[in-house]
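Dear all,

This email documents one entry for the complex benchmark we are building for the journal club exercise. For each entry we list the sequence lines for every component of the assembly. Then comes the predicted three-dimensional structure of the complex as a token string, followed by one or two observations. Please use this as the template for your own entries, and keep the labels exactly as they appear.
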Amino acid sequence: MELVRIATTGSVDDGKSTLIGRLLHDTKQIFQDQMQAIEEASRRRGTDYVDLALLTDGLRAEREQGITIDVAYRYFATPKRKFILADTPGHIQYTRNMVTGSSTANVALILVDARNGIMEQTRRHSFLASALGVPHLVLCINKMDLVGWSQDRYTELVDEFRVFARRLDIHDLRFVPVSALRGDNVVARSEEMDWYHGPTVLEMLEEIHIGSDENLIDVRFPVQYVIRPHRHEYRDFRGYAGKVAGGLMRPGDEVTVLPSGFSSRIETISTHDGELEEAAPPSSVIITLEDDIDLSRGDMICRPHNQPHSSQDIDAMICWMSEGPPLRTGSKYSIKHTTRWGRALVNDLQYRLDVNTLHRDSQATELHLNEIGRVRIRTTTPFFFDEYRRNRETGSFILVDETTNNTVGAGMITGDAA
Amino acid sequence: MLLFSGGKDSAVVLRLAVKAFWPARLPFPVMHVDTGHNFPEVIEFRDRTIDELEAQLIVASVQEAIDQGRVAEDTGPRASRNRLQTESLLNAIEKHRFDMVFGGARRDEEKARAKERIFSFRDEFGQWDPKNQRPEVWDLYNARIRVGEHIRAFPISNWTEMDVWQYVYQEQIEVPSVYFSHRRKVFERDGMLMAVSPYLRPMDSEVVLEASVRFRTVGDMTCTGAFESKAATVGEIIQEVAASRITERGASRADDRTAEAAMEDRKQEGYF
């Protein structure tokens, strides 16, 4: 069954918890003991409604303070698909969490309160979803019951958002009018809004075509591990294990390996279950080559006439995720890109981006926690990469603090700076 | 090292590891933290599975830790060795200098686990700090550590109980017989049916009866509850899970009922 990853952002006020609660409840994913536990907890706290956020606010600090600190994952399934929903708090100080939740998402669900319209927060969430390359964005115009189920209000907000969205890179933008509280157009169709003929939120999630979200054109296979069995029946076996990051790979295909530049042909593609005639992302497979060439972890298999950038100079947008020292020009970090590690020097912080106004501040000299900026870095060895908008796997990297070993930055490659 | 309790989740993680390194053998050992209070069926399953794979098994024994005086055992009818496992686990990690430990924990099991990273950093005391976790973006996992620290990796973090059973079905993975309906002497305690065993005796007021039961999770005999079920095959279990209105831990684990943050507290100390 197909698996769809969803990222939701927003504050309690938008009705996000209510919408998620409704999705889980109406698809029968909330269990009796969970429901009893959160009913009791809600009563103890003196709230007069059942707070569905308590379902996943698992840490004591979160329950005590009544806030979501971290990304919460919820799981539900329908007969058609399985869903993993990454629920992130929407305030500006949680940009880091939004980046985390969106980095692997197929769909971003963004809520708008129909009374308040498109807010600064809506724009911020939409920008982040587009920057993180989430292929499908669904804008749920919520609380339609509080604007008299007005089609005019809905159309007005859709038009306003479309104008804003032109500045963003969104492949597939959809709208749906809902009342999460009453359940209209979440799972069941609304009887109040007969003017809306589109799908409900759940129908959209079940039907959005995610098969083409992967890059099926550019063959990219970062080697994760070299398999040498040292067993009699596989004496000369030398296989390269990894996850296909792009393109379709078939036995017989001519390939080039980086950084050596040697060429060979794919001999076999196999898994524990047998040989395959074709491998596509995101499959994990073992590849053997016809020629005995030297390949190790961090190397890349591609096609001779379709190679990634191979460079030590990288332009990227970086989201800073550390509460510790800020990113500065001249700072050095460890960098991990696909399966390859190296060291990176920040050559130039070109600008810091205001995620609310999209204004570029070229006077900025530092990136602090939750800030995003455009950076040029130089690495100790060449990396083999694509633009992030072309391939999320080969276009992303993390920066790691060399003293604490903490992950401090998330990078999206915009191009080869050489 | 890969943690193997003999339960369905660790059986799935073991299968994933075998598939990942095939045709080579597992490049790391498998470890069982043995409380000495396990179901005999599970120990038999453990030994047979590891033998078939020609893998290396390490047993970290809680009994040994008690005998050596490293930990003190609770007494009384509700005593459990569940929490004592942490010491044996951390002791073995230190002794063998393991820097990476695979486990079968899932986020949908329990609310503290729901917040844990797939690559979960543990300091030199084995502690988990929920407020200071490494951000985890894309599939770019950061396993960098200093000497004495380690990473707990949870490959099936995002699987649900249903996903596990469907994979068991699809891959025809063997699981211990206690998961399937069988006749057993049980008594009711805290709304769960507990198995009568040398490690857990009913109190005077508790009535022993024989019933057709199965276990939904497999832990220590003193803290794992059974429930009445006729499900005798994986297919029937899948149907039962689909219809269930209670979570697996709510149905079967006494260790999570102690307090709202019971699991968070144990994890901070270094528990699984």
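Observations: The helical segments of chain B are 8-21, 40-53, 62-67, 85-96, 161-171, 234-243, 248-252, 262-269. The beta strands of chain B are 2-3, 30-34, 57-61, 100-102, 119-122, 150-153, 182-189, 192-195, 208-215, 225-228.
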